[in-house]
Write a structure and sequence with these properties.
Elements lengths: L1 E2 L6 E2 L7 H5 L13 H17 L2 E5 L10 E5 L6 H9 L6 E6 H5 L3 H7 L3 E3 L4 H13 L3 E4 L17 H9 L3 E7 L18 E6 L11 H21 L25 H13 L7 H11 L1 H5 L7
Parallel strand pairs: 3-9, 4-7, 4-8, 5-6, 5-7
Antiparallel strand pairs: 1-2, 8-9
Amino acid sequence: MTETSGAGRYGPAMYTASWRDVVRRDLFGPRPDPRDRPYRSIIRLVLVVFRLLGLRFDVRGAEHVPTTGGAVICSNHVSYLDFTFLGLAALPQHRLVRFMAKISVFKHGVSGPLMRAMHHIPVDRKAGAASFDLAVRALKDGEVVGVFPEATISSSFRIKELKAGAARMAINAGVPVIPAAVWGGQRVFTKHHPMNLQRGVAVTVVLGDPIHPEPGEEHRRLLQRIRTALEELLDEAQRTYPQQPAGPDDLWWQPAHLGGAAPTPEEATRLDHSDVRGTRPKPSPLARVRTVVHRHPFRRATRRPPAP
């Protein structure tokens, strides 16, 4: 963060991936594990995508990720790309994050081999104990494990009810929880909205102070401390986000309590239930194309000025 003039406010020090970053030999530290060569190659490819999209990152608190030993990075969830943004935040400490993801991602013909090559952790809700044991083992082996305790993207862009797995893993493995908040990624790619390829979108990632399980602490108590930290970090990320909606049609990515058009938490819960039942109406392919064209920066740039 860099201080700006006026009322002691702060403005973010933005970072955009460079071609130099893509080819840096020391990007992953002096002696990276040879077993993680596929993961490192994918990260470099992701940096190329970030560069082409011109994403502008404000990453704070990366120093809270430990340079060695296990830890749980516990984050809110607003977009399909959140795991890539959190992974970027861990790079300054030369750490690779092993994310927990749905088993369906591992069964996919394209994403499955990549997820396994990066040693991410599959989550099978029908065999939750096995997934939990894999995560605890990874933590005890000194890995950083990434968890989205809301279990799915929050349509309200506020913190949903948290699952207890992250707290239980930290207690069982005896490792700290690094709370994190991601904001802005929903503008690029989130559920029920088409992908947005507009350049220059800002993405904020804030990591907070480590939360260490206390001796004898129950997971419910630790989970409440995690929730409090996530809410505070998300509030900070939203308040200091450097970009604002371009107009009424662009209010969808702002939460209702900040004057945006996103569903309230109560409305989002009803929509989530509709998704599970398969009763939520889906836009037609033509409507999706119209939405993409309407949001595309080229269309806005080529609009003719009104006649005098």
